[in-house]
Structures are given as structure tokens and as C-alpha cells.
């Protein structure tokens, strides 16, 4: 059985198609198709407050192509989730209605809390029980922070600080202050030895550039600072040509790194775990749970 997830972010949109494997009751989701497209809705929304006509056409064409791939793979079910940019776009509701009428594809605009919950459902599987974690998920328009103690989420909050928003200079100083205060209010002596965990495309790319790693899936704050300085030393053109970064990654990777580093400094974390998981993986898990729910209940009512 194959399932699909579409994540429409502020910087890029992603389609992931995964095959469900059942090994003696142990479920795994094997990625069989992955497409990332630099839609960049946030460039419109964080500047003008709405999605342009050109942006809507690009969104339509992209979803049409994704629909064809989903049909070719004969997926049993799929879900489309849109985050920060579409949450804030004044014309998002009209666009959702038009696209549903044209393509018969429903876009679910989810709040930051639901976004964090979906990511939490897959990230928690990577955590140790004897370590406290500050999870930092950085998107184009917002960042979701979660605090885990003994693999249980004890606090969560979404902030309007994201890579595209920072690139456009649309963040507010007060949002940085809110994030710092939230971290310092929630991480005290009882969370000593906090470890950061980072999700999002930018931290994955930063991790790939690391020369020194603490473990196979983590690096220290000093290494992250070194990578930030290294990438910053290149012009945008050289980041694309010499570092071989995609254009829509090359301009946002440094602002994104500042969010991860700020969260680590404020929390006292000296190491960050990078499990290469994100919203798309959480959506796949959700779609599987929904599919099983519908089979048991023999209905088609969504549970989102």
C-alpha cells in the first residue's frame, strides 16, 4: 500500500509518496517518491499579505502534477497540508475553494499547533528516554518549538520567525524576544543537559556540510557556528555554483541557521540531533492512521 503527503510551506512545497511495510507487526514507511518545488508563497504573503495571481497559477500547476504522480503510484490515500504562508494570506480561502473545484484536491490550512503535533508524532520516535530535548522546527514563515521530558511533550509554541520571513526582513523584534523568553521560562535547572533536535530542510543541508559530528546524526554548536560562517563567506552566486545549493536554499540557509543557533544558545544546548524528519513524514503517519480508522469505522469522515 502506498500513501502520499503534500506539504505546502512558505518557501517550498513537497510531495512524498511512501510504501507501508509490515515486518511482523513492525510498521515502516519506505519513501518511493519525493519531489520538492520552490513555490515560495511566503515571498508574496509576507510582503503584500496575499498570494499573487501568478503564485496561484504556480500552485495549481504544481498540485496538478502532484495529483498525476499520486494517481500513477495508485496511492490509497493522501493529504495536503499548508502552513504559515497560507495561514496568513488574506485570499487563501478563495484559492483553496477554486483549486478544490478545479482539481478535486482539498488543501487543509493547519495551525501551528497542529503542524507541531504532526511533526511530534514522528520525531518522538528518535528520542531517548533519559534526555531532555528542545525540538526546533524551522520553516519559511514560522518556527515550532517543543520541549520533551522522558519522550513526553510538556510544552509547545509556534513563533512567527522563519527563514523567508527573515530574508524579507518581515520578522518583529518582539517575536525574537517572545521566543527567548519562552525558552528561558521553560528550560531551567530541572532540564539540565538539554539537547536540541532540529528538523527542516535547512538544518538537514547544514548537517550535510558538517565536517565534525558528535554522532552519525548529531553535531555540536561550535560546528554549526562554523558552517554558518563558512556559508556566509560566499556570495549568493557562489553558494549556488560552488556549494551547489539550490537557489531557494542558498538565500535562506543563513537566516535559518540563526534561528537554530539562537534557540541553542538560549537553552544552553551544546549539541543538536538531526533526524532528517519533517512535516511530510508526520502527514504520512497521519494518513496511515486515518486510513486504518476509516477501514474500521467503514466511513469517510476525516479526523483532521
UniProtKB/TrEMBL annotation:
Molecular functions (GO terms): pyrophosphatase activity
Location of the Ppx/GppA phosphatase N-terminal domain: 29-284
Superkingdom, natural source: Bacteria
Pfam families named among the record's database cross-references: Ppx-GppA (PF02541)
Matches recorded under SUPFAM superfamilies: Actin-like ATPase domain (SSF53067)
Alphabetized InterPro entries for the sequence: ATPase_NBD, GppA/Ppx_hydrolase, Ppx_GppA_N
Stated name of the protein: Phosphatase
Source organism per UniProt: Siphonobacter curvatus
Amino acid at each position: 500500500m502506498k500513501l502520499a503527503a503534500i506539504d505546502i510551506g512558505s518557501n517550498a512545497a513537497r510531495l512524498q509518496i511512501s510504501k507501508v511495510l509490515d515486518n511482523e507487526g513492525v510498521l515502516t514507511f519506505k519513501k518511493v517518491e519525493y519531489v520538492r518545488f520552490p513555490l515560495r508563497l511566503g515571498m508574496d504573503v509576507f510582503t503584500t499579505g496575499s498570494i499573487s495571481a501568478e503564485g496561484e497559477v504556480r500552485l495549481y500547476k504544481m498540485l496538478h502534477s502532484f495529483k498525476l504522480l499520486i494517481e500513477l503510484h495508485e496511492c490509497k490515500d493522501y493529504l495536503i497540508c499548508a502552513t504559515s504562508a497560507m495561514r496568513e494570506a488574506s485570499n487563501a480561502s478563495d484559492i483553496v475553494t477554486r483549486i478544490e473545484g478545479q482539481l478535486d484536491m482539498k488543501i487543509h490550512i493547519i495551525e501551528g499547533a497542529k503542524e507541531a503535533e504532526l511533526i511530534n508524532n514522528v520525531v518522538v520516535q528518535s528520542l531517548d528516554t533519559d534526555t531532555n530535548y528542545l525540538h526546533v522546527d524551522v520553516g519559511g514563515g514560522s518556527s515550532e518549538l517543543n520541549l520533551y521530558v522522558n519522550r513526553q511533550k510538556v510544552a509547545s509554541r509556534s513563533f512567527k520567525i522563519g527563514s523567508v520571513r527573515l530574508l524579507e526582513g518581515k520578522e518583529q523584534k518582539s517575536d525574537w524576544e517572545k521566543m527567548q523568553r519562552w525558552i528561558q521560562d521553560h528550560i531551567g535547572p530541572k532540564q539540565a543537559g538539554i539537547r536540541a533536535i532540529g528538523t527542516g530542510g535547512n538544518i538537514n543541508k547544514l548537517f550535510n556540510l558538517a565536517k565534525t559530528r558528535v554522532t552519525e546524526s548529531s553535531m555540536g554548536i561550535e560546528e554549526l557556528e562554523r558552517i554558518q560562517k563558512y556559508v556566509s563567506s560566499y556570495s549568493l552566486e557562489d553558494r549556488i555554483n560552488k556549494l551547489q545549493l539550490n537557489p531557494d536554499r542558498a538565500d535562506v540557509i543563513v537566516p535559518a541557521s540563526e534561528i537554530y543557533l539562537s534557540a541553542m544558545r538560549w537553552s544552553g544546548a551544546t549539541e543538536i540531533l538531526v533526524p532528517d524528519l519533517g512535516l511530510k513524514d508526520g502527514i504520512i503517519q497521519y494518513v496511515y492512521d486515518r486510513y486504518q480508522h476509516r477501514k474500521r469505522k467503514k466511513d469517510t469522515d476525516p479526523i483532521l
